[in-house]
Amino acid sequence: MKLYPAIDILGGKAVRLVKGDFDAKKVYDEDPLSAARGWVASGARQLHVVDLDGARTGEPVNLDELERIASNLGVPVQFGGGLRSLKSIETAFEAGAERVILGTAAFTSPTLLERALAQWPKRVLVSVDVRGGLVSTAGWTETVESGPKDAIAALAERGALELVYTNVDRDGMLEGPDLKEVAGVAAVVGGSFAYSGGIGKLADLEGLARLKAPNLVGVIVGKALYEQRFTIPEALAVLDGARA
């Protein structure tokens, strides 16, 4: 299982939100590259970068920060936030993203997802963000009248088999994942997924590892690392062991 330290960018700074609330942000580093460099220096093998400004406005805003991170650190970067056209996806790849994450557009654009999957095989993920039991879009400000299992099934029919699943209600709370929920997601995902939301201690990673779900291939961690609840080497020791 891979560890993805999260770099969420808002207003040019590395921040974390609570439950996806833009008014409940905390700045952890004035320079996203500095934050990312710290994770890589500690052993991170890949990074998860989110353009929060882009997620809210519908168009990438922080591609220059993505380019700085990707060009300076030499590790794969997956990037999401405001990617709602083929042009914006292409621009993210040009800025150095190894993979991109589609959120809102995957649910609201009739053809964008299929065209992106066809043009960039294995490099396009879909984010299933769940708030109050429903899929959330538009920077977590709107909901789709669909539960996660139905959404995952519909995405699979459209060819999207690699997902990022986030429990927005737990995000930034450091209270741990609902392992029953994650197991339920694993049961319906036909491809693979990374989990995000609420990781607060090493025991949370150990709990995910104990699920032994072969299609749970990654975990995204932000606030717990910033708050020094555990280190990247400690997390890697748990997650590497899950693959043994």
Task: Please write out the topology.
Elements: E1 2-10, E2 13-18, E3 21-29, H1 32-41, E4 47-51, H2 52-57, H3 63-73, E5 77-80, H4 86-94, E6 99-102, H5 104-108, H6 112-119, E7 124-131, E8 134-137, E9 142-144, H7 148-157, E10 162-167, H8 179-188, E11 192-196, H9 202-210, E12 216-221, H10 223-226, H11 232-243
Parallel strand pairs: 1-4, 1-12, 4-5, 5-6, 6-7, 7-10, 10-11, 11-12
Antiparallel strand pairs: 1-2, 2-3, 7-8, 8-9
The fraction of residues in strands falls at: 25-35%
Number of domains: 1
Question: Helix segment count?
Answer: 11
Largest sheet: 8 strands, parallel, barrel
Report the count of strand segments.
12
CATH topology: TIM Barrel
What average pLDDT do the residues reach? 93
Structural class: alpha/beta
- The radius of gyration over CA amounts to 16 Å
The CATH superfamily label reads Aldolase class I
CATH class: Alpha Beta
So what's the overall shape?
globular
Q: SSE order, as H and E?
A: EEEHEHHEHEHHEEEHEHEHEHH
> At CATH's second level, what is the architecture?
Alpha-Beta Barrel
Residue stretches low in confidence (pLDDT < 50, at least 5 long) are none
